[in-house]
Amino acid sequence: MTRIIDAHQHFWRTAAQAQPWRQAAHAELERDFSPEDLHKDLDAARVDATVLMQSVDESAENDRLAAYGHDERVAGVVYWLPIRLGTLALAELRTRETPKICGVRCLIADDPLEWLNDRNSVELFREVAERDLAWDVVPITIAQIQSVLKLARQLPDLKIVIDHLGRPPLETLEWEPWASHIRELARLPNIAMKVSVGIDALTAWPSWKAASLDRYVAFAYEQFGAERLMLASNWPVVLLRASYGQAWADLSAIVDKNLSGEGERTDVLGGTAERWYGLNHHIAHAVNKEARTETNR
């Protein structure tokens, strides 16, 4: 039976790391969020496991993620990787313990990504693909989209995950250029998408506005299909406007409007995340690694 998986959530301790993306409007997020804080909400929403995401671009973040990765409800961890450093970035993952690693990410905002297609970057992502890891990213500008598309075409085995519906303009409800971006990204079979709401939209909303997501989710489903969509809460960031239970229930209901059959629902609620992040494979690898370590003590 496929698990229900929340494909995007974070843990952090505010005293341990600076979060440059946090603004004055984000007072709700200025506290610690630990596995114990989330477990009760997962149980209430009947969510089995999660994919834990990096939230700060620094090496110490990976130490924190490695510790959190031992939590039994964490199915996979997307670690920080200093992608701009090309092949040298792999040392960040090769030289430390990375339990349940299933992907890599760094925060790009609206920075230009022309370096993404440099020879060193391509070689880095080639190895990321060989390791069966996904790359999470939120490209929002035309230039960023083109850089991501070029890389995806060069490396068809690289699994790319677009977070937060590719940042639709939820505060204005405009359509373009978001729709054209999504259409282009969906044409490549090695790109998937998360149905979730990012911090920009949550900050702009005066309150939780789930109904605003309807046509954007419908279009994402039309372009990607259930087999390349995954449901994600973006907890605790989503707490700016909604409880975990409300956000998960509303996002699930919006997705359900578009699905045809239980098989598609199984994909969006867990199957896509299992496949795209290779969760069963990476968990088995982590368990075997810990068993080997215990035997050698």
Shape: globular
Q: Provide the succession of SSEs.
A: EHEHEHEHEHEHEHHEHHH
Using the coordinates above, name the CATH class: Alpha Beta
Beta-strand segment tally: 8
* Class derived from helix and strand content: alpha/beta
Quick one: CATH superfamily?
Metal-dependent hydrolases
What is the helix content?
40-55%
What's the story with the biggest beta sheet? 8 strands, parallel
CATH topology: TIM Barrel
Q: What is the strand arrangement across the widest sheet?
A: 1-2-3-4-5-6-7-8
Strand content: 5-15%
Could you provide a short overview of the structure?
The protein is of the alpha/beta class and 297 residues long. The protein has helices at residues 35-45, 59-68, 91-94, 119-130, 142-154, 178-186, 199-204, 214-224, 244-256, 262-276, 279-296; strands at 5-9, 49-53, 74-80, 101-105, 134-137, 159-162, 191-195, 229-231. Strands 1-2-3-4-5-6-7-8 form an eight-stranded parallel β-sheet.
Describe what this molecule looks like in 3D:
- With 297 residues, this protein is of the alpha/beta class.
- It has a single domain (5-296), classed as TIM Barrel.
- The chain is 41% helix and 13% strand.
- The protein has helices at 35-45, 59-68, 91-94, 119-130, 142-154, 178-186, 199-204, 214-224, 244-256, 262-276, 279-296, and strands spanning 5-9, 49-53, 74-80, 101-105, 134-137, 159-162, 191-195, 229-231.
- An 8-stranded parallel beta sheet has the order 1-2-3-4-5-6-7-8.
- Helix 1 packs across helix 9 and helix 6 runs parallel beside helix 8 (214-224).
- The protein is globular.
- The two termini are 35 Å apart.
- Mean pLDDT is 90; it is low at 291-297.
